[in-house]
UniProtKB/TrEMBL annotation:
<dbReference type="GO" id="GO:0030955">
    <property type="term" value="F:potassium ion binding"/>
</dbReference>
<feature type="transmembrane region" description="Helical">
    <location>
        <begin position="282"/>
        <end position="301"/>
    </location>
</feature>
<comment type="function">
    <text>Part of the high-affinity ATP-driven potassium transport (or Kdp) system, which catalyzes the hydrolysis of ATP coupled with the electrogenic transport of potassium into the cytoplasm. This subunit binds the extracellular potassium ions and delivers the ions to the membrane domain of KdpB through an intramembrane tunnel.</text>
</comment>
<keyword id="KW-1133">Transmembrane helix</keyword>
<protein>
    <recommendedName>
        <fullName>Potassium-transporting ATPase potassium-binding subunit</fullName>
    </recommendedName>
</protein>
<dbReference type="GO" id="GO:0008556">
    <property type="term" value="F:P-type potassium transmembrane transporter activity"/>
</dbReference>
<dbReference type="InterPro" id="IPR004623">
    <property type="entry name" value="KdpA"/>
</dbReference>
<feature type="transmembrane region" description="Helical">
    <location>
        <begin position="135"/>
        <end position="157"/>
    </location>
</feature>
<feature type="transmembrane region" description="Helical">
    <location>
        <begin position="418"/>
        <end position="437"/>
    </location>
</feature>
<feature type="transmembrane region" description="Helical">
    <location>
        <begin position="254"/>
        <end position="275"/>
    </location>
</feature>
<keyword id="KW-0813">Transport</keyword>
<dbReference type="GO" id="GO:0005886">
    <property type="term" value="C:plasma membrane"/>
</dbReference>
<dbReference type="Pfam" id="PF03814">
    <property type="entry name" value="KdpA"/>
</dbReference>
<feature type="transmembrane region" description="Helical">
    <location>
        <begin position="525"/>
        <end position="551"/>
    </location>
</feature>
<feature type="transmembrane region" description="Helical">
    <location>
        <begin position="178"/>
        <end position="199"/>
    </location>
</feature>
<keyword id="KW-0630">Potassium</keyword>
<keyword id="KW-0472">Membrane</keyword>
Length: 560
């Protein structure tokens, strides 16, 4: 009963915040005047002047996409330099050496793409300065990049012009008006609950048995707040959100989960306000909640039932391996579902230790990449599947498909195909390559189906810009650092560019009023179509490898 109450309260809280923040975001991006202008406008205009940004200029999709990509690549290069030179830079009280080239490339790529995959342990691999400049700083910019790309796509789909906004203005407004205030508020709550926040050096203490132990610490609360608000993931410590300095209490555990869901869900509500159809937002939110709750039920029931062999031996209580006793099975299962639904990558339990069906859930959600999804990227993928569902049903009734009064034609279908096919390609091809080469295979901890899942999870996590892992895989090698880094880059920018192109094309079309045979997208019937299309496309692309991995492992566990 307590577990059921927990999920009900969580859904209600997310819904309340979704309405509030979604309305606020609508005012930020789609109104000339926005809340708190007297506070934020002077700061923004100083930035515009210093950066020579024309706040009144709007861009077509090509200029918007080019600005987005070039800006991110410049930031990535600067992050790489900090990681390669951290031994010579200040704020390095532990004397941590420079990061090796392949690992620095992987890390810089990871955090600029909102993935936050970590092939290292933060407390022993990075100085305080590197944590702040190469980790916390891009947590803001990468999250803002995803949000503004989604906003630009919405402008194209719903607007009357091929101009979709100004990337630099959108980026500044997102950071100043949304991410910084929310992160500051969440950080204060985390500090109040016991999360560490300091720039003082690591502490050496003498334990009860006389051993000297070094206790790492640092600007953890600041890291944790934007990590979850921006669906970034990663961890200041290797243990991630299972570490008591990051996640000291059940209250902080709830704050972490709410933070991850906050912006992805709010963007859906914002879409409904832009369309002046709140019902559209509730239909899409209901569809993704259905998938989310189904996934949660799968991992929760699987972990609660535990391992059949242990149950037969009289060892009951569910599968607690790899879980913090502070949180237990229910909160760990919910955190697992949230962090991979919102493609955050933060973990409060070890996904490697999940039962096969429990491990299936995070893998499957990252493959779908639209069960709420990350900040911005999630809404873009939801809209991608909405367009696909409209196109397929349009073919069934013999009409040119339309959405929001605009026809879906050849160019839009090409861009949709690129975005849809890139995701499975960059997951399955590198996975097959890693399993075929003797060197990468040596990094696998467990044999058989679970070993396949370890490799599959790594590339799945990179492609979905998630960052969590089946940590049994030793990914800190030149091969994995290079290939996963490249997968993260492709998974992030190819789909954004393709969908911005689609948005620009749709923005240049004249909207017409729908007629009686046009498919409405704001009905429960369409919500059901959306869910079916998502599951069918996901199954067609990934079922064979899932059958060899977690599904096969579960069958062996049941029938061996």
């Amino acid at each position: 009963m307590i577990d059921l109450l927990m999920i009900i309260v969580f859904v209600l809280l997310v819904t309340v915040f979704m309405i509030a923040i979604g309305t606020y975001m609508y005012r930020i991006f789609f109104f000339t005047e926005a809340p708190f202008d007297r506070l934020f406008l002077p700061v923004e205009r100083v930035i515009y002047r210093l950066s020579d940004i024309d706040e009144d200029a709007s861009m077509n999709w090509k200029t918007y996409a080019a600005s987005l990509v070039v800006t991110n690549f410049i930031m990535m290069a600067l992050m790489y330099l900090v990681l390669r030179l951290q031994a010579y830079l200040p704020l390095n009280p532990a004397g941590i050496p420079n990061m090796p080239p392949a690992l620095a490339y992987n890390t810089a790529t990871s955090f600029i793409t909102n993935t936050n995959w970590q092939a290292y342990s933060g407390e022993v691999a990075m100085s305080y300065l590197a944590q702040m400049l190469s980790i916390i700083y891009p947590m803001f910019t990468s999250a803002a990049t995803g949000i503004v790309a989604a906003v630009a796509m919405v402008r194209g789909l719903t607007g009357k012009s091929p101009l979709i906004g100004n990337f630099f203005v959108d980026l500044v407004r997102t950071i100043i008006r949304l991410l910084l205030p929310l992160s500051f508020l969440v950080a204060l709550i985390l500090v109040a609950e016991g999360a560490v926040m300091t720039l003082k050096p690591y502490v050496a203490v003498t334990t009860f048995d006389g051993t000297v132990q070094t206790i790492p610490r640092g600007p953890v609360a600041a890291y944790e707040s934007i990590k979850h608000i921006g669906t970034n993931g990663g961890g200041f410590f290797g243990a991630n959100a299972a570490h008591p300095f990051e996640n000291p209490s059940p209250i902080t555990n709830l704050i972490h989960m709410l933070s991850m869901m906050l912006i992805p869900s709010s963007l859906i509500y914002m879409l409904g306000l832009v369309l002046k159809k709140k019902k559209q937002a509730w239909v899409l939110a209901g569809a993704v909640w259905f998938i989310f709750l189904s996934m949660f039920a799968t991992v929760y029931i699987s972990e609660r039932l535990g391992v059949p062999a242990l149950t037969a031996a009289g060892i009951t209580g569910g599968n607690m391996e790899g879980k913090e006793v502070r949180f237990g099975i229910a909160a760990s299962s919910l955190f697992t579902t949230v962090t991979t639904a919102a493609t955050t990558g933060s973990v409060n339990n070890m996904h490697e230790s999940l039962t096969p069906l429990g491990g299936f859930v995070p893998i499957a959600q990252m493959m779908l990449n639209n069960v709420f999804g990350g900040v911005g990227a999630g809404l873009m993928n939801i809209l991608l599947y909405v367009l696909l569902a409209v196109f397929l049903t349009g073919l069934m009734i013999g009409r040119t498909p339309e959405i929001f009064g605009k026809k879906i034609e050849t160019h839009e279908m090409k861009m949709m195909a690129i975005a849809l096919l890139t995701h499975p390609f960059i997951i399955l091809v590198p996975t097959a390559l890693a399993l075929a080469l003797p060197g990468p295979v040596q990094s696998i901890l467990n044999p058989g189906s679970h070993g396949l899942s370890e490799v599959l999870y790594a590339y799945d996590s990179g492609a979905a810009n998630n960052g969590s892992a089946f940590a049994g895989l030793d990914a800190d090698t030149v091969f994995y650092n290079t290939t996963i880094g490249t997968v993260m880059m492709l998974g992030r920018f190819i789909s954004i560019i393709a969908l911005l192109s689609l948005a620009g094309s749709m923005g240049g079309k004249v909207a017409t009023e729908g007629n009686v045979v046009s498919l409405r997208t704001d009905t429960p019937f369409f919500g059901a179509i959306y869910v079916v299309v998502v599951l069918i496309i996901g199954a067609l692309a990934f079922f064979p490898v899932l059958a060899l991995g977690p599904i096969g492992e579960q069958l062996v566990m049941w029938f061996h």
